Amino acid sequence: MSASNYQTLVEKFKGTVIDFAGEQTFVVSPDDYLASVEFIHSELGFEMLATLTAIDYGVQAEPRYHLFLRFNSIAGHDTFNLRVPVSGHNPKIHSIDKIYRNANWHEREVYDLFGVHFEESSDLRRIMMPFDWKGHPLRKDYPLGYEEPQFTFNFDEIEGHKPYAVRREE
Amino acid sequence: MPDLQSVTLEDIKHLVSGRALEGDTMLLNMGPQHPSTHGVLRVLLELDGETVINAIPDVGYLHTGIEKNMEAKTYQKAEVMTDRMDYLNTVGNNLGYCLAVEKLVGLDVPERAQYLRVILAELQRLASHMVWLGTSALDIAAMSDYMYAFREREIILGILELVSGQRMMTTYIRPGGVWRDVPAEFDKAVRDFLKILPKRIDQYESLLTKNPIFIDRCAKVGVISGEDALNWGLSGASLRGSGVNYDVRKFAPYSSYDHFDFEVPLHTDGDVRARYLVRIAEMRQSIKIIQQAMDRLPGGPVRSSNYKFVPPPRSEIGVSMEALIHHFKLWTEGFSAPKGSVYVAVESPRGELGTFLESDGGPKPYRVHFRTPSFDNLQVLPKLAKGHMVADLVVIIGSVDIVLGDIDR
Known about the structure:
The structure holds two protein chains of two kinds. Chain A has helices spanning about 5-15, 35-40, 105-115, 155-160, and strands at about 15-20, 25, 50-55, 65-75, 80-85, 90-95, 115-120. By secondary structure, chain A is α/β, with parallel strands linked by helices. Chain A has one domain (about 5-160): Beta Polymerase, domain 2 (2-Layer Sandwich). Chain B has a three-stranded antiparallel beta sheet with strand order 1-2-3. Chain B has a three-stranded antiparallel beta sheet with strand order 6-7-8. Chain B has one domain (about 65-305, about 335-385, about 395-409): Cytochrome-c3 Hydrogenase, chain B. Chain B has 18 helices and eight strands. The two termini of chain B are about 30 Å apart. Chains A and B meet through strand 3 and strand 4 of A and helix 2, helix 9, strand 6, strand 7 and strand 8 of B.
């Protein structure tokens, strides 16, 4: 893992670098997200997007979500980690599926399970859950089990006592 | 109660051609229950006669929320869920997860355990390739390979049962090493198997590789260039069939793969036949790796002796107060990992299997994500299938080697 790529991005996009367990991660602001991914793809030569996923830091955290991206460069024999904070208020960020074609399904998964909206995506539908599902299961305020399954006949009753957390407005 | 909704043509109009909207072409569901979709996969096909104009894969039928469930379990207990993702690569899933946990907490693994991990992961790769070979050959009506491949797979599952007590969901690899040392019969069982296997692979090949019907069905079908394959995030044999030399075992060696001498088979055609040839060659390389690992298998412990993370052996619990405390702590609270995140990739039979682990400092993973190879490999299906016949689509799905449990998690 070469540190120079991280330095290049720090100088260009004014982000920070996290160093943990021998791995570096570049944190970029959401405004520079699209430009930095374009830079990583065309200038640094990372041909492959290994993964794109999100982390939810809870209802009260701001920014509530982080996107995590991992890039591979086969020719340069290198990997690159990228993180982007995404606000919990109306979470949205620009799609990168024009740059990396396989980003589409990863973005659909994040949209489905976290509710982060990807602008100008070529095809933003739910992917794992049924298309008419309510809620985003991987959010931290989404309950895990210990509840009756929701069928059409008891939908309202169970929806009524689901403990969705409410954001406290300052 | 929400109103029952249905998907209309309006919802998917950006995915089909203009002719479908006028009713000129036919929209047809292939699956979810279809024998050659290799699991519960639905592909919405737009057909002009027998020609595929668009193929829209629909996944999620096997979504079990493994990532969410793992957030509620301690690091050790969460591991059993990884087996259930890619049910043809259970050992490899355990390996990826355990490497991520070990990287997170900074745990060293004894060399004997690393070699055992390699042996079992390669045996699992062979078993997985055998299932792929059998089922994808069956899709084009080559029945015999299915029988032969499953015969050898049975022996591998027998070996897995020998070491772990389970045929499929082994959870034999644990953070810090493996569950326990292999039994005395292990050496003979593996060596006997390695002796017969090269001839058996010749047997599989004699039925397919030069078979004119097989070549007709597979050559120049589902072609993708190396550059496109990378941009679509393909990995594993699907990528190496297009001539890109990317194998995580060589790219970023883990679990002492760098101790072994093996090659990464490549092919440049990028079609179904190339992917077939790459996988067959990979099976021969796996034999080579197992052979070397068996010959050089060192002695010594199979688990780390760092009892903050690895439960002490039963014999110590009776005589050592500290061991008892460690045992109690590990099986109630679990161990805590430092705050941070890691991403570890391993080479599964299907490609790059990445484990992303984020810890908030507690005994349970804050977020687990698996970058599963089938997820990206299936996504390219519309591109591969466009312009081919429906019957070719079946061959293409077989050739990218998907496991739906791996996609949906």
